[in-house]
User: What shape does this take?
Amino acid sequence: MKNVEAPAYVPGHGLLRGRTAVITAAAGAGIGGATARRFLEEGARVLISDAHARRLKEYEAELAGEFGEEPVTAVPCDVTDETQVLALFETAVRAHGRLDIVVNNAGLGGTSDLVDMTDVQWSKVLDVTLNGTFRCTRAALRLMRESGGGVIVNNASVVGWRAQAGQAHYAAAKAGVMALTRCAAIEAAEYGVRINAVSPSLAMHPHLVKVTTPELLAELTAREAFGRYAEPWEVANVIVFLASGYSSYMTGEIVSVSNQHP
Assistant: This one.
């Protein structure tokens, strides 16, 4: 089946009412911003974070205008900086009293054939996408271990499973996120913490259009079973599920938000 239209937006059902969440890379566009909105619609208190301070502040104002100022807090954070990561989670606890959910959405892509890739290109993608997820997971687990539970949802990618030219650094980082998710979940189980990941294929947003050629976008779209890209909120819906009590017996899982699980 091809060229199936996106479904109607699903209203919130209070699945996260009263819970506090931290979401990285959530300055409006893409999966992070969509997840922040969905979490607010589900009744959560949300701390959004991003390395881009101006866009983050603008999105905080937008969300506060819709949901009120009380459930929304914004803290700039570069996930490659351990000091900023620690400050992010300390602010969440100080502002909302506790930490229940973390969505590690921060990631950095790029296109370069391996033979021409520099050490800087490789290291930058790995540091944001894999090491950043590690830093935030570690900081969150230290708090959740003391509080007696929580949920972490990481953002992986289908390229962690499949080969794609020009994506060796990004694919390696996302495969690392998958492995980190599985290993951390086993360790965190004794603290009452669940850790899972989503693995989207193609979720369209303005920044992706800027850094991806029309030819590649057309090729990737053609791989999709519905003949279209995902809306970011469709991925966010799965993140809501993993963060909610509906997935209470799931941990260490990588959930494909597409038809492209190998």
Observations:
- The chain has a mean pLDDT of 93.
- Residues 119-147 form the longest helix (29 residues).
- The chain has eight helices and seven strands.
